[in-house]
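For the sake of transparency, this paper describes our internal protein records without simplification. The tokens are whole numbers drawn from a learned vocabulary of local backbone shapes. One such record is reproduced below, unchanged from the form in which we store it.

. . .
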Amino acid sequence: MTGTDHEHSEIVVEAAVWLSGQKDPPQPIIPELRHRFQLTALEACEACAMAQRFRTYRVAHG
């Protein structure tokens, strides 16, 4: 991984953590994540998927 890739990964995780903690996430979420965290469309989609995994884990291990 290059330094840039690592930085992107961290911001994607940060966005996913933020999103997974939102009781009523803003809609549409992809543009919101792109704006709020300066993500690409792909990164915003990755953050959404990661946030869902975080929520699932919390429910399963509550």
